[in-house]
Structures are given as C-alpha cells and as structure tokens.
Write a structure and sequence with these properties.
alpha/beta, Rossmann fold
C-alpha cells in the first residue's frame, strides 16, 4: 500500500480546491464531504478518517478538534509512542481500504493535519506533502466571512493562528519531509502549467479540461 499524499494548509487557503484537482486527476480520496455553503465545489475531506480517527485524536490530546483554539503544543505534537503510531497507521489504512482503495495514489486532505504532522510522518514516512498557501490578509478576510471559524474576533487573533501554522510548516521542512508548496492563486490567475507541475510531481496525469471546468475563480474570492 502506497503512502498517501497529505494536503495541509490554513483553513481558507484553497486546500479543498487543491484536493479536488488531485481527485479529478486520478487520486483516490474515498468517501468525502460534498459541497456546502463555504465549499461549493466540495470539501474533498475523507468523512471517516476525519470524524473517527483525526477528530478523536485531537480531543484525546486536549486540542480543539476544529483546529482553531487551542492548537496542540510541542509536547503533544512530538511525544508519541510507537504503539500509538502503529494504531493510527492501521486505523487509517483499514479505513481507506474499507472505502474501496485497492492500489495507486490516494490522498487525505485536512488543514488540521499540519498541527499533528509528526504523527502522520511517523505513520507514513514516505508520504508526499502539499502545503497550500495563500496571502495572510486574504485568509483573515475569509475567516471573518466563514461562520464555522469562530475562535477569534480580531485580525491579530487570526494572524497568531496563521503564525502557528507557519511554524508547523517550517518544522516539516526542517524535518526533511517530502514537501511542496502550492499557491492556488497562481492557478486562479490562469497558470495551469503551475498546476500541472504539481499534479505530475504527485505521480498523476494532469487532466486540464476537467481541471479548468472545476476551477471557479469567483469562489476563491471568499
């Protein structure tokens, strides 16, 4: 069984758009949350892994299962026992197989995974990571518009939350993970060669007509 592609980033960065593009280009995502008010093309986040594996783990270590406040601290991120890693790995693998995975490339998209990246890395050391990036000011504007993001009520509060994510992204890079940054804004501006480069780096074939049909620049404004 191949290790997955793991898509992370601050919420409201374009992680769903990025995951949707990989799904269109052949990556297996399993049973995923569909469209909603804040992700009109779909969330592309695995229902079972999020609800029954990631969320309970965050609750167990005392972190916000929504990935807002409080976030895991360094002790919670790095003090992980081998049996805990093995259980997490087996739970994820069993889940994705139960959902129909047999072979090839599969992915899991979840902004919260950046907060527990070390657990994912220990479980799947050969995983390919995509860190989805967006201008901080645009993320903050979107947070204020999005009803499920309620932890902070000031720009400074959300900026601190973003900074916490950026520290985890830096840890991932320093830790030697197979990491690529992706800025959806470049694709929104029409640079599909940039998107193609990412898709092919993930071992997939870029389906430009379907990706163009999927991408709606108007939706990225929020």
């Amino acid at each position: 069984m191949k290790d997955p592609i793991l898509i992370v980033g601050c919420a409201r960065s374009g992680t769903s758009m990025t995951a949707g593009m990989l799904n269109i280009c052949g990556a297996f995502g399993g049973e995923m949350y569909g469209p909603g008010p804040w992700n009109q093309k779909g969330m592309f986040e695995n229902i079972d892994i999020r609800a029954n594996i990631v969320r309970p783990y965050l609750e167990k270590i005392g972190a916000d299962p929504r990935g807002q406040k409080p976030l895991p601290n360094n002790r919670q991120v790095f003090e992980i026992s081998p049996p805990e890693v093995e259980k997490f790995k087996q739970d994820v693998q069993r889940s994705i197989v139960k959902q129909g995975y047999r072979e090839g490339t599969w992915f899991y998209k979840c902004p919260k995974s950046a907060m527990i990246w070390y657990l994912w890395h220990c479980a799947f050391p050969e995983a390919k990571w995509i860190i989805v990036k967006r201008d901080h000011a645009d993320i903050i504007k979107s947070c204020f518009k999005t009803r499920f993001l309620t932890a902070f009520h000031t720009k400074e509060g959300w900026q601190g939350w973003i900074d916490a994510h950026e520290r985890r992204f830096l840890e991932m890079k320093i830790g030697g993970l197979d990491v690529r940054e992706f800025w959806p804004s470049k694709m929104i501006a029409g640079d599909y060669e940039y998107a193609k480069e990412l898709v092919e780096a993930m071992g997939l074939k870029f389906n430009e007509p379907m990706v163009r049909a999927f991408i709606d620049p108007k939706l990225f404004k929020d």
